[in-house]
Amino acid sequence: MADIKIAGIMRAGAFSPNHIGNDASILNLTAEQLRKRGCEVKIYSEEQLIAGHVNEDIIINMCRDHRSFPILQQKEDAGALVINSGYGVENCTRERMTRILLGSNIPTPDSLMVNTNEVVTQRMKDAGMTKVWVKRGDFHTMHKEDVTYVRHPEEAQEVLQEYFLRGIKRAVINRHIEGELLKFYGVVGTSYFHCFFHFGSRDKNGTDEDKPRFDHEALKTACLSAADALGIKIYGGDAIILPDGSFTIIDFNDWPSFAPCRAEASAVIARAILSEIKAHNAKKTSKK
User: Fold this and answer.
1) Of 106, 121, 156, whose CA–CA distance to 135 is shortest?
2) How far apart are the C-alpha atoms of 17 and 62, rounded to whole Å?
3) Whole-model pTM above 0.85?
4) Antiparallel, parallel or unpaired: β 193-197 and 170-175
5) How far is CA 10 from CA 40, 47, 231, in A?
6) How many of the other CB atoms lie within 10 Å of CB of 247?
7) Architecture in CATH of 5-84+260-287
8) Along the 288 residues of the chain, how does pLDDT read in single tens digits?
């Protein structure tokens, strides 16, 4: 496989809030796994991609800079293999993601998509929304303030005003779901699916045995449906498990850090990438 040349594109630091090292680690480990399998992998920054320095026809990437999206999409349209797809990564920006998940019947919170300069208090009251999460709609999260929990419509209005003053034009308001937070990671085309309850404080919150039981396979199926709807292969996110065992997906991310399961996941991701390369090459050959 020495003739397989792959470009690996690092995520720009601005889009890795508190996770710069973790995001770099999963891409580097995946690159090492691919090198062990005979591939040549060169690592680039998003700035190098944007500057036109990436010429490989196989691209694995963690890009989230909006300037990267059209470049990845153009390369994909020209026949390059891009994982995750530039179209899929763009779909994971907050407002697009919310609209796609809601439109695909994925269990996800009731939401309002709004301009940050509009009055939303009455809309929220009409929708029966009190406790909500206000999230910037245009980008992936860049600062902790980009996702804010509020307890009543008036407080939500204040957050929107702050967003407007920061130059953020669009926001998503998600209904708050009471339950236990579960984090998940998966790779399309494989059986790999890792999930665990997130403990803010293990002493306070107890152990997994104290948490509500849920249908693991049903959650995995919902996540695969979400990944398919968004158009990504390597994914992760958050779900809320309700006391009755039902679940709601509250966040879905393109190529997360896989921090708690990085070593195992990197090998799975590498094998999935090689499988995609094989299928891609076979498709090109069949067209000749």
Assistant:
1) 156
2) 14
3) yes
4) unpaired
5) 16, 9, 20
6) 23
7) 3-Layer(aba) Sandwich (3.40)
8) 558 999 999 998 777 666 678 889 999 999 999 999 999 999 999 999 999 999 999 999 999 999 999 999 999 999 999 999 999 999 999 999 999 999 999 999 999 999 999 999 999 999 999 999 999 998 766 677 789 999 999 999 999 999 999 999 999 999 999 999 999 999 999 999 999 998 653 444 455 667 889 999 999 999 999 999 999 999 999 999 999 999 999 999 999 999 999 999 999 999 999 999 999 988 877 776
Report helix angle 94-103 to 216-230, nearest 10.
Answer: 120
Q: What is the CATH number of domain 110-175?
A: 3.30.1490.20
CB contact burial 18-46 (16+ within 10 A = b; e otherwise): ebbeebbbbbbbbbebbeeeebbbeebbb
pLDDT digit string, tens, across residues 51-83:
999 999 999 999 999 999 999 999 999 999 999
In Å, the largest CA–CA distance within the chain is 62
Sheet with 40-44: list strands edge to edge: 40-44, 5-9, 58-61, 81-83
Q: Rounded distance, CA 135 to CA 163, Å?
A: 9
Q: Is the peptide bond before 84 cis (omega within 30 degrees of 0)?
A: yes
Structure tokens at 163: 């967003």
Counting every residue written for the chain, the total comes to: 288
Residue 262's φ and ψ, nearest 5 degrees, are -60, -45
Alpha-carbon gap, residue 208 to 229, rounded angstroms = 30
Q: Which two tokens stand for residue 238?
A: 């958050």
CATH of 180-254, one of 3.30.1120.10, 3.30.470.20, 3.60.21.10, 3.40.50.300: 3.30.470.20
Tokens of 150: 């509020």
Question: Is the dihedral angle over the CA atoms 240, 246, 251, 253 positive or is it negative?
Answer: positive
Q: How far is Cα 256 from Cα 184, in angstroms, rounded to an integer?
A: 10
